[in-house]
Amino acid sequence: MTGLPPPSNRRMQDATLSSSRWLPVSYLDLLLEGMARFAPDPLFWLIGGVTVFVIAVSKGAFGGGAASLGVPMLSFLIDPIGAAIVVAPLVSGMDMFTLRAFGPSSWSKPDLRVLIPGLLVGLLLGWLMFEKVDPRIVGLVIGTVSFVFALHWFWKRRRKSAPAQKPTDAKLGFIAGTASGFTTFVAHAGGPPVTMYLIRRGLEKRVFVGTNAAFFTLGNLLKLIPYGFLLAARPDAAAAALLFAPLIPLGVPLGVRLHHRLSQDMLLVLTNTILIVGGLRLIYVSVKALAG
Length: 292
What we know:
292 residues, globular, single chain, 12 helices, mainly alpha, 74% helix
């Protein structure tokens, strides 16, 4: 990627110094070296651990939602590309747990049929443009659209004019799927486009979360193919992901229990609140990076 801001914590990058000289026989040594460096650092757990746990809870409760916080928050600990590589296997693992709670009976098949072709196109574009696209611009656009959409939803809710369930829209679904696939690949910020589409549809809360979960399970599994090559070149990122992995079976089930306690309206309130917080965070990080 071009124009990336420098990492703010150089200590966390020490494990990458020898990755450019990576050899297959030394990968395990580099992996263990990275784990040994990261594990004792309190900031690693305070910032990274809390972020991963929040994403896991949001996966169980909303089918997605807070994953867009991963790259901006972990960029305090490791460079942005490294942060994206860390998040990829973690969100895929979270999806496996989420899918156990929200199986095929909770999926909106008509919506998935229009979303998934766009997802495939978006992932391909993201892969082709991963090192060319400026993530600051992507983050700024997605953050702004998310923020405006959620504010509009709250405005309609306050006026008690929330729309009734709308039919599946092939064109909007394809556009949302493409935008989600692209942004989830380059910045793990794919939640807002598909979330906005599904909110517009007015789905029942279990179907809303189940469709979200099915969509991102497929997308994140497909991402693992190219991200596998990136992980092979970044043992430091792989080490961080392994250290965070035990948080997944703690956070996702907690999110599922939260989902069952939420009313339809409260689920949408929290989902749109996440869109606002995540959108503002993406705007802040992007503008700060562009200004720097």
